[in-house]
Design a protein that fits this description.
The complex is a heterodimer of chains A (106) and B (1013).
Chain A (H helix, E strand, L loop, with lengths): L2 E3 L6 E3 L4 E5 L11 H8 L8 E7 L7 E7 L5 E6 L7 H10 L7
Antiparallel strand pairs in A: 1-2, 3-4, 4-5, 5-6
Chain B lengths: L2 E2 L8 E10 L2 E7 L3 H7 L6 E2 L6 E2 L12 E4 L6 E5 L10 E4 L13 H4 L8 H7 L2 H15 L16 E13 L3 H13 L3 E4 L15 E2 L2 E2 H13 L4 E4 L2 E7 L3 E7 L12 E13 L3 E3 L12 E3 H11 L1 E2 L4 E5 L5 H9 L6 E4 L7 H8 L3 E4 L1 E7 L6 E6 L8 E4 L2 E5 L2 E3 L2 H5 L4 E4 L4 E4 L14 E3 L9 H18 L12 E2 L18 H4 L3 E3 L4 E2 H9 L5 H8 L12 H12 L3 H4 L13 H5 L16 H6 L3 E5 L2 E6 L7 H14 L2 E4 L4 E6 L3 H8 L12 E7 L5 E11 L2 E6 L4 H14 L7 E4 L4 E7 L3 H8 L15 E6 L2 E6 L8 E7 L3 H12 L5 E2 L2 H10 L34 H4 L10 E8 L10 E7 L5 E13 L4 E9 L8 E5 L12 E7 L14
Parallel strand pairs in B: 2-8, 9-10, 9-16, 10-13, 16-30, 18-26, 20-21, 20-26, 21-22, 36-46
Antiparallel strand pairs in B: 1-19, 2-3, 4-5, 6-7, 6-8, 11-12, 11-31, 14-15, 15-16, 17-27, 23-24, 24-25, 28-29, 32-33, 34-35, 36-42, 37-40, 37-41, 38-39, 39-40, 42-45, 43-44, 44-45, 47-50, 47-52, 48-49, 49-50, 51-52
Helix pairs in contact in B: 3-4, 5-6, 5-11, 7-8, 8-9, 13-15, 19-24, 22-23
Classes of the chains: A alpha+beta (106), B alpha+beta (1013).
């Protein structure tokens, strides 16, 4: 039963209040895109053991989507940030590096 | 014979007799007794039978770890199997029965299994699967099914009458365990101001310190415990819970605790169990330690108990398993039992110590009482059939040659202690093997971690490996201080308490007694008492190649019984390591999983059962449906009327009547459950163009348009009618089940992809009641109740909408039709829904206005060939499959699903496509039937070329109609194909099929003349 701090309402929300949304920072490929790009967008996921960026919605709370950086192995949460963020923000990257020096944003 | 001592028993009140029954026999115990101590005190030694060999079994332990004394409690509605007698407090009228025996507890026919154990070795079940094949089905399975299972499942027809509840709490600290370590932890945490929930699984504070004669600060432990509890009770930040077991520790500090509120004193109107759902910043596990049995031949016989359990029963309850008790040990602690027994006036013929020397303070004290101490010795065998008659002694380092028979009626054994590390391990804490003490203890460098990556569980006292009372309190204080420091809370400077207990010398690991025992003896040494796993079984598993402890566990069922290996795991592990020639830590442990001990299903369900199982959504008109005999069907969280059967009318007849009433007169449908979402803003049209496959931005205010929504994967996910309310505002209708999902879908795309678009959405489904007035007389009915809107075809044509007052109600009326008839769907504020419904019914009487349900709705839409999400779609169907190409824009650059639908598989002409189906004989095709094709696939199964998606009897046409997806279907109009059916064919004959002709899916009014009037 995970908890995440909703970056909008500031609440430490329990998993029962949240809806998961899979990997974050996917780039959408629409009509005209190459098959390989579209396949990657739709189906191919990092499925990382370790640092993972993911989407959550505070569905039973404020209703906002947010993003989280979390270790899938230890369930450590490095931080949460608004969904309207195209790539992991600097402070989140720094927080991850502090805990996982070998990690790099690829 | 087990007995009640004439005096003693610190937890019982000899002035209060409690009458209870066991297997129908009336017995008496004392207030404060457990069922086990009361049975023991009544001379009842056999309390159950083992799982596989049905061997007679008596109580072996004194707490939740008990593997043997499992009973059925209560009867009828309150019957509950597998209750541990050791943790069941007796009350007046308690009814218990023994389980897993036939025909009687003392004489069991399954006992013959025990005579042929060589036919039931480890992995017996798995081997029977393999060969000879027919034996499994005809010999083994019936036999195993007959004899398997512990206890009797409650009668499924009876409802548990008891109430259960759940509490939620947030706290700084949960302390699991109310022994002296837990109390010490709570005192320190209490002084720091931390919010603490202290849980003790038993009915008493203090754990086993009072039994073990511990002195704290120069006073008996009992005095210190009482003072500690008094102090804690006065602290507002400490919450004390007795009979409350911390069952599991989960991610991010989530803790479940199981409180048995009234098991000990059942009464009406008091909840039975309470499940605490706690978020705690830290958990202190002061869960103590469990004693291990010794593996000697006959160690499972009734009367052989853990030394600590014998001590507990004598000191706490004044019950003893026998009058002459032999003690067998590999450590000093068991000598305490000898002292306690001697003090109670019972005979201890000897203490058998496997160690070469026994010269510690406790052995010396035992010798001083004139009790024989035999060092370097072990037990070769226990004599006795349904109890203990004699212990046969041998050299521990030999093969078991009997040196002496010691007459006795009970044996107290101790193989050392294992810290209870379960709560540490539940969430990933790692363990260290401490060779010196032969136990696993928490590895302080590898704790379970929380959301911050920090350790959040700490063990305190015996659970941390500090077994001796002197170390226990010190360790508890240290652990608590560490926890408080981690939480940035103050710690006290109080000195460690002075504890006086005799020094103990080291134990010597003894995993098999005697060390060189041969195969015959090893086949009588029990590891897992409940599941009948013996030393020989684990060794066999090792010989057959099971090197991993996890595999051995499953192969032998070691530790898989209801006690989850609390007594057997370490011994089994050590035997496996010995057989593999490996060190114990290399073999590793099995995974500890919550709950620590079984908890009731009732507590897990809490109040969520019956009417409270899930929230029910009610339309404003629900009351009328209930009052008028509606037959309901679940649709999401709604209950919608399926039909309104009249007296003596079948559901089928009611549906047919309702359909004909609509087609020939006027019907009323409560369509309030239909999803209604407002989409508003300058970019609303642009947004809906992305959501729907067709163009919505071109819709004019006052008009409606049907649209399809696809997932990004291209599959059809919802459909409905969109009305444009004004330049910036759209009202999106979704399917009944889809409102929440589609609203969430919209928010997902708006918040995460197109967040710069100016669009706002609101789910207003429950703000409106919506009633469909349908049928050729619909307009006449509405004109009768009066409207300030012109409802004529010219002013309000098909697919138009208007706002105004109808029959005095504020109304929005949509000219949309799901039945093919003249139809007005009228939305009024939810608060006026019932009044509007009543008015329509009253005014409609002269037109024969008939309420109709969802089944009539479904049949009528199928007669018109309209698709239904969930029938024609199943997550693999695209709009093109359904002939809905007309609703897919060719002009738009993009919409959700467009790219996906360009994939080669989606454009494949071989995809099954929607057609209508008419059986040649007019019957109704079975739902889900497949259209049969020629040939077989690679698995030898017949090929298929389509399937039925919707199938009904049409009262309008007087015959069966169906829709289905068929390969090249639209190109095969008029062709007859065969469908399978589950109807049985005559023996030897080919399976029955039903022939149907491929036709247009629009069976009724193909020109749409009826709805367009």
């Amino acid at each position: 039963m995970l908890t995440f701090r909703c970056p909008y309402c500031g609440i430490d929300a329990c998993e029962t209040e949240l809806a998961p949304g899979g990997e974050a920072h996917l780039k959408r490929f629409g009509p005209g895109s190459a098959d390989a790009d579209f396949e990657a967008y739709l189906f191919l996921r990092h499925n990382a053991k370790g640092v993972h960026f993911e989407r959550w919605r505070h569905a039973m709370g404020c209703g906002k989507w947010f993003l989280a950086a979390r270790c899938t192995a230890t369930l450590e949460v490095f931080g949460t940030y608004p969904a309207q963020t195209p790539e992991p923000p600097q402070d989140i990257v720094a927080a991850i590096r502090a805990k996982r020096p070998d990690w790099s944003l690829s | 014979m087990s007995l009640r001592l004439p005096k003693g028993g610190r937890l019982i009140d000899r002035d209060k007799r409690v009458v209870f029954s066991f297997n129908g026999k009336r017995l008496t115990g004392f207030a404060g007794d457990t069922l086990a101590s009361a049975l023991m005190g009544s001379g009842q030694r056999i309390m159950g039978r083992s799982f596989k060999y049905h061997r007679p079994r008596g109580v072996v332990a004194s707490g939740v770890e008990e593997p043997n004394a499992l009973v059925n409690l209560g009867k009828g509605k309150t019957h509950e199997p597998n209750q541990r007698a050791t943790t069941t407090e007796i009350f007046q009228g308690l009814q218990a029965t023994s389980q897993n025996h036939w025909p009687s507890l003392s004489w069991d026919i399954g006992e013959v299994n025990a005579l042929i154990p060589r036919f039931l070795p480890a992995g017996f079940y798995y081997k029977t699967f393999i060969h000879p094949r027919p034996f499994w089905k005809h010999v083994f399975e019936p036999f195993i099914r007959q004899s398997a299972g512990l206890g009797k499942a409650p009668d499924p027809k009876l409802q548990d009458p008891d109430r259960y509840e759940q509490f939620y709490a947030h706290t700084d600290l949960v302390i699991a365990g109310g022994g002296i370590a837990g109390l010490q932890a709570a005192l320190e945490a209490g002084r720091s101001g931390a919010q603490v929930i202290l849980c003790e699984q038993s009915a008493h504070w203090g754990g086993r310190a009072p039994v073990d004669g511990v002195e704290i600060e120069g006073q008996p432990a009992e005095v210190w415990i009482k003072n500690a509890v008094d102090t804690l009770e006065k602290m507002e930040n400490i919450h004390l819970r007795l009979r409350c077991m911390v069952a599991g520790v989960y991610d991010h500090g989530y803790v479940l605790a199981y409180e048995r509120v009234s098991d000990h004193a059942p009464q009406d109107d008091v909840v039975r169990h309470r499940l605490w759902r706690i978020r705690s910043r830290h958990v202190i596990a002061a869960t103590g330690a469990l004693e291990r049995p010794l593996s000697f031949a006959g160690n499972d016989k009734p009367g052989v108990m853990l030394a600590s359990a014998v001590r507990d029963h004598v000191v706490n309850y004044g019950s003893a398993p026998g009058e002459r008790v032999v003690i067998v040990t590999n450590n000093d602690d068991a000598y305490r039992t000898a002292l306690v027994l001697a003090e109670a006036g019972l005979t201890v013929p000897c203490v058998v110590d496997a160690r070469a020397r026994a010269e510690g303070a406790l052995p010396k004290a035992v010798r001083a009482r004139g009790i024989r101490v035999l060092a370097g010795m072990g037990i070769s065998n226990i004599k006795g059939l349904r109890g203990v008659v004699a212990a046969q002694l041998c050299r521990q380092d030999g093969a078991g040659e009997v040196i002496e028979d010691v007459i006795c009626d009970a044996v107290a054994m101790s193989g050392g202690w294992s810290p209870v590390v379960h709560l540490w391990s539940h969430c990933g804490g790692k363990l260290l093997w401490e060779k010196e003490n032969s136990f696993f203890r928490p590895d302080p460098d590898k704790p379970p971690t929380d959301q911050n990556g920090e350790g959040f569980v700490i063990c305190a006292g015996a659970a941390n490996g500090a077994l001796h009372a002197g170390q226990t309190l010190e360790d508890a204080l240290n652990s608590t201080r560490k926890s408080l420091q981690d939480l940035n809370m103050p710690v006290s400077d109080q000195a460690f308490l002075k504890v006086s207990v005799p020094e103990e010398e080291k134990l010597e690991p003894v995993w098999i007694m005697p060390a060189k025992a041969g195969p015959k003896k090893r086949a009588k040494m029990w590891l897992d008492f409940q599941n009948d796993v013996k030393v020989s079984d684990v060794q066999l598993a090792a010989r057959e190649g099971y090197e991993s402890v996890e595999h051995t566990k499953r192969y032998t069922t070691l530790g898989m019984a209801t006690d989850q290996g609390k007594l057997s795991n370490i011994n089994g592990l050590a035997v496996l390591a010995g057989a593999l020639g490996a060190e114990i830590p290399q073999v590793g442990t099995t995974t500890f999983r919550p709950p620590y001990a079984p908890i009731s299903m009732g507590a897990i369900a809490g109040e969520a059962r019956g009417a409270l199982f899930q929230p029910l959504r009610r339309t404003p008109i629900q009351g009328w449906h209930e009052d008028n005999g509606a037959h309901f069907e679940p649709v999401g969280y709604w209950r919608r009327p399926y039909c309104f059967p009249r007296k003596g009318e079948s559901h089928r007849d009611a549906v047919n009547r309702e359909i004909l009433a609509v087609r020939n007169g006027v019907g009323l449908l409560d369509a309030s459950t239909l999803g209604k979402i407002i989409v508003k803003g300058p970019d609303a049209g642009r947004f809906l163009d992305m959501l729907y496959t067709n163009v919505m931005s071109s819709l004019k205010p006052g008009k409606c348009r049907y649209g399809l929504m696809c997932s990004e994967n291209g599959f059809l996910m919802d459909d409905g009618v969109v009305a444009r309310l004004d330049e910036e505002t759209f009202l999106v209708h979704t399917t009944t089940g889809g409102a929440d999902r589609i609203h969430a879908h919209m928010e997902d795309w708006l918040q995460c992809e197109w967040w710069d678009w100016k669009v706002y959405t609101a789910n207003v489904t429950e703000a409106f009641a919506q009633i469909a007035v349908v049928g050729p007389k619909a307009r006449a009915l509405l004109n009768k109740i009066g409207a300030d809107i012109d409802l004529s075809k010219e002013a309000l044509p098909f697919m138009g909408w208007a706002e105004g007052r109808i029959g005095g109600f504020d109304a929005r009326v949509f000219r949309i039709s799901f039945s093919g008839e003249l139809s007005f769907e009228i939305a009024v504020p939810a608060s006026q829904g019932r009044a509007f419904w009543d008015k329509l019914l009253e005014a409609g009487a002269e037109f024969g206005a008939t309420p109709y349900g969802t089944e009539a709705l479904h049949v009528m839409r199928a007669e018109k060939g309209f698709i239904m999400i969930g029938d024609e779609t199943d997550g693999t169907v695209i709009p093109q499959d359904l002939g809905l190409d007309w609703a897919i824009s060719k002009k738009k650059d993009d919409y959700l699903g467009k790219r996906a639908q360009e994939r080669s598989h989606m454009a494949d002409p071989e995809r099954w496509k929607l057609v209508g189906l008419e059986t040649l004989d007019g019957s109704v095709l079975p739902d889900g039937s497949y259209a049969l094709d020629e040939g077989v696939n690679e698995n030898g199964q017949g090929n298929t070329q389509g399937r039925v998606t919707s199938t009904y009897f049409s009262p309008t046409l007087g015959r069966g109609i169906a829709m289905g997806l068929v390969r090249h279907g639209p190109d095969r109009m008029g062709e007859v194909i065969a469908f399978n059916t589950t109807k049985p064919a005559a023996k030897g004959a080919a399976p029955k099929t039903i022939k149907a002709r491929i036709v247009s899916p629009v069976f009724y009014d193909p020109e749409g003349e009826k709805q367009n009037v």
